Amino acid sequence: MGTPAVKWMEAEKSQLVGPVIFVFAVTVALVPILLLDLEGGATEQVIFILLNVVLISYIVWEVVRLYRHSRRMAFVQPPVIASLMLFGKDYILPNIPTLFGEENPVALLFAVWRGDYMYWLNMSLFGVGLAVFGMWRGYHSRLGMWLAMRVQRFMIRRNLVASSFDPNMQAVLILFLLSVIGVIVQIRLGTFGYSADIEKLQQAQDVQAWVGLLTQAGSLAFLVLCLAVFSRGRRTSAAIWMLFLTVLLWQFAVGFLSGFKSQVVMPVIIVGVAYYMARGRLSFGLIVLSVVMLFAAFQTIEPFRKARWADRNFDGTSIVSIASTFWTAATNPADYIVQKDETTFAEVAARTDLITFTTVGLNYSHNSELNEFAPRFLLDLALIPVNAFVPRFLWSGKSLVNDGWWFDAYVLGHGPSTRSSTAMGPVAYFYFGGGFLLILAGFFAIGLLQRVAFSAFIPLGLGGWLIFLGTLPTLALMPSNVSAALAGLLRMLPFLILAQLWVIRRR
User: Fold this and answer.
1) pLDDT, tens digit, for every residue of 426-478?
2) Would you give the distance in Å from CA 259 to the centre of its chain?
3) Does residue 231 come out as left (phi exceeding 0), alpha (psi in the -120 to 50 range) or beta?
4) Which of 457, 454, 462 is nearest to 504 (CA)?
């Protein structure tokens, strides 16, 4: 019979059609570059349309292919989630208004590059295509399969994963309380979410990195509670229901107050995954709820971000100040958002936009040299294990995570006095480190890690699921600062292994 991991691997070993189709499609899409005038606006528009079509078609093809091989498990696999929630939402969706002749409102902010904007937009889409292709090839590669089996055997031999479902509710409660403490500590340090102060965030990087593990404990506790509720159904006790609702409301509150839309939707994703694990099917109601929560996030978080900078008395170290500012912005959004003459769809596309920032990043990288304040992109990637575990007091030369500030200050041109931080996206991050080649290689490595996380841990039972889901936000929704994110993931793994052994009683 073999484990599910073995079956998936055997089904994918000889698949070479994907690379062939992708290379052919990209070649066809880039033919106009060779045949037509590069300076012509019409030509660039044609290339833009072709690249989007190729990118969307390739993603759909890979997802459908995976669904045919493993229907029940297809939509919880990391490259599928990344293809839809990262590449689809942040790199493709913002292009749709442009495809229909409607100006992307974010692009208007960068009129200084207007002359070559479409050219660099096409180059960015080419980079995104390399990223998607590299990720899927890493996921399907024999190397990824081999690594997954090695990790799986290591975990089995040392009995490091709890396979049965017998939750320790005392441990669940303690993990939840630890997450509450973690959020409070971050607020007091001035490093919480969008309310964080750039200087304080840099000063407390090491502390923030470890405190962040406490907030992850809340997601772990919430997942176990969801599984308990869905698996027991009507047999769920009133106490567990009360704890479940309490943690759910806390997760939503933290998500909204963080100022990050992904954090608002994440509790719904956890509920959906738990329902899928317990019942073996997707819930249409949860899908609708996720859309509703995403809409609510768009309607409230953007005004909150504006209000955070507009309020001179705002204090990012006070939960009262954060909550008060959020409430003011949420109840009076029109006071903080300038109404534009654009469709709702265009507005949503603009708010999920990473492709424009990637475009500006590629243009900057081509025309300017990285200054002294720039992150050490390639070096930081090489030093991920060291950055993960060596504290700053032992290594004074440890890199400061300032990529968002640097991008806002110098690439976007807001100047070194800016207090804001702008996400450049993982594609731009890799490009700054080593161009298109590093985009391809970097996402190939991410695909390898996705394969290990999915195929090594999930077949081991509930504890493996918990470890896998702990890695999912990083590997599927790759943050802009790739090196810091992967260092955080490496730091988190021992915590996840110990936590699942504690929270699940072993039989």
Assistant:
1) 999 999 999 999 999 999 999 999 999 999 998 888 888 889 988 988 999 88
2) 15
3) alpha
4) 462
Contact indicator for 63, 74 with CB cutoff of 8 Å: yes
Distance CA 44, CA 51 (A): 10
Q: Please count the other Cβ atoms lying within 10 Å of the Cβ belonging to residue 367.
A: 10
DSSP letter (8 states) at residue 399: P
Is 378 buried (19+), middle (13-18) or exposed (0-12) by CB count in 10 A? middle
Domain containing 343: what range?
1-507
Q: Residue 37: its pLDDT value, please?
A: 47
Phi first, then psi: give them for residue 402, nearest 5 degrees.
Answer: -130, 20
**Where does the pLDDT of residue 11 fall: very low under 50, low under 70, confident under 90, or very high at 90 and above?**
very low
Between CA 395 and CA 100 the distance in angstroms is 52
**Three-class secondary structure of residue 341 per DSSP:** coil
Residue type, 57: S
- Kindly report, residue by residue over 52-91, the tens digit of the pLDDT: 888 998 998 899 888 888 777 888 899 999 999 899 988 9
Strand, helix or coil at 504?
strand
The answer, yes or no, to whether residue 134 has pLDDT greater than 90, is yes
pLDDT digits (tens, 9 = 90+) for 394-419: 666 666 667 888 888 888 887 887 77
Q: In whole angstroms, how far apart are CA 321 and each of 189, 199, 272, 313? A: 14, 19, 32, 8
Q: Which amino acid is at 343?
A: T
Q: Backbone phi, then psi, for 413, in 5-degree steps?
A: 80, 25
Q: How many domains does the chain have?
A: 1
Count Cβ atoms below 10 Å from residue 437 Cβ, excluding itself.
12
The phi, psi pair for 110, rounded to 5°, reads -120, 50
With cut-offs at 50, 70 and 90, classify the pLDDT of residue 3.
very low
Of the listed ranges 40-44, 255-259, 301-305, 332-336, the one predicted with least confidence: 40-44
Residue holding tokens 């997942």?
223
Q: Which helix (H) or strand (E) holds 1?
A: none
Residue 75: partners with Cβ closer than 8 Å, 6 or more residues away = 67, 81, 276, 282
Helix, strand, coil % in the chain, rounded to nearest 5? 75, 0, 25
Tokens of 255: 């998500």
Contact partners, residue 331, CB within 8 Å, separation at least 6: none
CB-based contacts of 313, cutoff 8 Å, min separation 6: 321
| Average pLDDT score, the chain | 80
Coil, strand or helix at 31: helix
